[in-house]
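In response to a reviewer's request, we include the raw inputs and outputs for one of the modeled complexes. The two entities were modeled together in a single run.
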Amino acid sequence: MNYKSGICTFCGTGCGHLLDVRGDSVRGVYPLQGHPVSKGRLCVRGWNIHELLNTNEKIQTPLVRKNGKLVEATYDEAIGVLVDNLAKRKKNAADEVGFLASPRSSNEENFLLMKLARAVFNTNNISLDSDPGHRRSLNVMHRGTGMAGMLGSLEEISKARFILVAGIDITKQNPIIGSEIHKAARAGARLVTLDTRNTQIARLSGSFLQVRPGSYKIAMAYMAKVILEEFLTNADFIKRYTSGYEGFVSAIKTLKDGDVADKTGVDLAALKEVGRELARSDTAMVFFSSGISGFDQETIGYIYNLFLLAGKIGREGCGVNPITGINNLQGSYDMGIAPDLLTGFQQLSDATAREKFNKEWGVKLPAEAGASIHELLMAGKRLKAMVVVEHDESIIMNVNEVRDMDFVAYIGSFRNNFINYAHVVLPIATYVETDGTYTNTERRVQLSKKKLEPSKGTVPGWKLYTMIAEKAGAKWGYASPADVTAEIARLTPSYAGISHRKLEGSYGIKWPCNKENPNGTARFSLDGVPKKISFAPVDSSFRVPRASEEYPILLLIGEAQHYWHQNNLMKKTTIPLREYNATLLLYPQGYVALAPENAQELGVRDRFPVKIVSPYGSMETMVQVTDKVKKNTAYVAYFIHDMVTKFFLEHKDVLKRGEDATIPVRIVKV
Amino acid sequence: MYIIKEDQVTNIAQELHKEYQVYGPVLEKETRQTMFVKADDAGEIDLELPIPANPAKHVLFPQFERIMSYTYDRKNKKAEIKPDFDDAPKALFGMRSCDLSGMLCLDRFFLGQEFADEVYRNHRKNMFIVTNTCVEPFKQCFCVCTDSGPSAHEGYDLNLTDLGGEYLVEVGSDKGKKLAEKMSLPKAGDSHKKEKEKRVDRSVSLFDSLAKDNKAWISRVVNRVTTGLIDEKVWEYIGDQCLECGACTFVCPSCSCFNIMDPVTGADSADRMRTWDSCAYEGYSRMAGGHNPRKPVEDRRNKRFFCKLSYSQSKKYLRPGCVGCGRCAWVCPGDIGLPNVVTYIRREIQK
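The model returned the following structure tokens for the whole complex.
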């Protein structure tokens, strides 16, 4: 049988597939019918994953920069250069050394990278390159329920009678989850989309409320207010299971109806009805994006509070579901890829947790939290040395700071622009060439088995990290990724019951998996929760970004067809790349989507060049005239080089706000 | 016509294995999914397995295939092109009649026109085909609506029908006859033939109760699809549900669209790869210069169903483009597998 089962590693859905493995390459892919999430479906990316695995743009040999040029080297030599450069900064590592990890790496690889940064090279400056979207969701969920992950279950979408999709183009970002939602709606569930743009899921919804940019929070607050005012809550549920209710009630009290209509731009009666339906429905789920275009923490807090108020948390068919755009984004946080976290959302500041790690690893971990790499770069603080793993974007944001560094190491399977700035390049095997586990958006830990020998003698990531650690004098001694998982299980309560042996032949286990839940946990459940779950503390500021006479248009930033941000992997395929290029060929300078009314006012047609002017800077691009955006809002896809490296950098405070990141601009004809 | 005992039927596969690479339905043990694949050992093939998740199309038209390589000699300014044909003899054992019908469509597309595709011809030319009659339909089947089952009536070398304890072996070619004689199979009689007809009739009658997932009353919509007299709104309704994944075309036994790419393999060399392509993709219909005559997704969906259901296309294939296997309904993340599309169009006609 040349077809071998595995896990798709593009997005956070974690679909099952069969790879057609012949000789030393993967010649095709086919969907896996028995997989509980994907049930025999794949999206455009998943159907073309063999193209990525056959690319000629893999990194083949270790490289070391000599006299300004990268030259081939042995692993031993390249690792030596890396270790020398990091070891000599060990004393000041907290200021000088950083690790930029990848949300695509397996749990084992990320765990070891985290261990390498902290236990070997003495720094807590470790973060993901997609920081910090998903972290905000995890903060809210963890604080409220103790579970730092999605509260619902993808398998139960068909059991939700009411589904709210908020600010996520889900049929593009996570198509198979979009499919499940669509199928639930076809089977009779009430589907409501709240978005600034008219997305595909909006067109498939029973109701679509097109909100003004930055007003999701107000819309959520208003629905909560309706539920309260019309006595649609279950007082018994609130009393028995929750705390912090009064705080939330007082936060939304100040909200005025007139304000809501003005700020959200939607019909109040319709919004009211949605609130009522949510409360009255037996079961309900909400889906929102959790990643680069995720919401700010306040909005997530409001979404969570609304669903808790409606009693739609902790039961079958219910849940608050932040959806990750990248395959192992959830797993990366689970593995402690954050300046202040250890594994399983254990806090670095927690001395007991730290002591457990110290004991297991035989070290004394630096206790003070580090900083995220993006924060350090954005703040203009000069890191001196950095290790970057499988960068997901092909454009480097803070390219000047990176260029000025004394030492940059790049570790990955596929070529990336970072190589141009690297002093050492270390290739690692692709995900089909080694065992590894990946945790999807619903906390499902799945084992992906080795299907091929690594090409041209490249070593798998877990082995490379072990080699680096041992060169630096540590004794790690892992013989396989299963050994690493065993260590993760020892140190991480939510992964305590997970092992490769247990995962083998299964479609994954959803953490927490431990003595109490040996087969994992389908969803967050109210049964047996030791303490009450709490409402998220939220503020009662309902400001929205306002356009002005000088800057009359609100600019939104988001993803484009088949392509969220500037995915490095997609560019190494043929058909998905062509689909991406279809947009780029039409709009070589990128595009700003503009409503027909605005286009007419400006006197421009589709593909006309325009200049976007904000209070901080300007950029030139082309116009895409579309009725998908409302008048006086414009949408710009987050993948154009100048946009990312120049224009947006001037707007760093705005960008931190994710999906709500809106910039008031003026658009002028060029 | 010959007879072979049920416990000996895989002997045919064993016999073929001497000369051919043998493909057939094999169970992937870990996931329990039936796949139509090259068997390492003919004993892996199991005729009792359900319809394979994948059609046999990939044997002649692989998902991803090198079709030639070229090198450039800089000094002498000479390019050398080497075709990479796979002409290994292949036997397809236990193929379902729907998948054979799909293959006949592919034959017409790749070989039946002015230009014959050499890559395809090389896969196809030494092929031995053994079909297997479906004595019971599966949930998603509707081959009775598309004239492609439950038993094959052309294009096979041997056709097997389970008569209970023994298989009827019908001969469709000289090659088939030679093999049956080489194996000294006993001749079948009239009673066997009658029993087969009875079993096929029974299978057809079981569609009502067993093949519940799909019904596709295709004849009613062929006219509409051919003339284009379908309300735009119906296509928009269909297009809105298309996630542009390409799955329906990849799993379709008769879809033949492909893309070509030339990855560079060295300083002076490159390969030419052929991969499956799909009319669901926007880039597929874009022309050089950027114009896209089928930019809206519904226009591209409309094209697919024209391919499967129109009379004009049937004239090319000499049969409907849809073979009634129901796989597109399995894999569609929207709700627009072909049977549903037929339903939507019929609904509009009835209005």
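As requested, we also summarize the result in words. Chain A has four domains: 3-53, 63-130+329-479, 145-323, 553-669. Chain A has 25 helices and 26 strands.
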